[in-house]
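Late entry, D-MYO-inositol-1-phosphate complex.
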Amino acid sequence: PQEDLDAIYAFAVDLGRKAGRLLMDRVEQRISGAAAQEFEEKENAVDIVTQTDEDVEVFIRNAIQRQYPSHQYVCTFLHMILGGKLIHDDRFLGEETYAKGQSRDYLIDEQPTWCIDPLDGTVNYTHLFPMFCVSIGFIVAHRPVLGVIYAPFQDQLFSACSGRGAWLNETRRLPLIQNPSIPPMPPNAPAQCILSCEWGKDRRDIPDGNMHRKIESFVNLAAELGSRGGKGGMVHGVRSLGSATLDLAYTAMGAFDIWWEGGCWEWDVAAGIAILLEAGGLVTTANPPEDPETAPIEDVRLGSRLYLAIRPAGPSATETGRQSQ
Ligand code: IPD
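Prediction complete; structure with ligand written out below:
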């Protein structure tokens, strides 16, 4: 059946705010000393989970189940006898639900699917570094078509739904600077850009997967461009926020020019990609190229672990037309 995206969008925005408030309640409890922050390690010492991740996911999942009963497990019993594997009719993919060790081969198919990270930036949350958020994505036929990201510490809600624009706090259009003459990138990009990248969680020393080497090559790219010197020849900065979801939101906003990570999961990027694309940004599954303007922009489907995102230029002609209506 055809999904009513407007209704799903309104529901997801409301849900994102409610889930974010739950995160902030926990933060307040810690600040007041009423609760201590406990965490457990998952795959390794930097891959951690808190009770809050799990509680917020249950909160979101239950809310979806109440509102959209047909978007849930068709048969929990079947799910159990299949040995914990997701069955095709499951339309909910959450970080904490997935973490029980399921195969990712058929997590996302043609079915509309909710893709949730109840707390992106768990390490930040644990340290009370304010860059954490709730991320709610909705995927149809492999494509993220709707995204809501709420960062409760900053009270910033990023949202988008296909064809309806991308927004900050539902009032400011993304990218923040709505100037059609802004070029896609500074002429010497990535010189004069802010680059953003993430460390991910994989610390294995393997030739293709060593995160230190990947980050090193990313930072070297910035340094190399810096050494070309001259006026306007330098990368303006390299950032690593600790939340892939917020990186994408800030790229959609236009604050980051280029973002890259090798090691994301679907729930880290689903909502952010929906928002970035709707803002007019680009996303590909490439490594950082010498010249980001030549990056092959693929028809992005979820399932890669590697993403490169490029901020939107000014609004396109059609966007400008739509805005002035
Ligand atoms: C992680 C964060 C981190 C990124 C990892 C993600 P989590 O998500 O977004 O910045 O580098 O790849 O898995 O565990 O905090 O929800």
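The chain has two domains: 5-173, 194-319. Will revisit in the morning.
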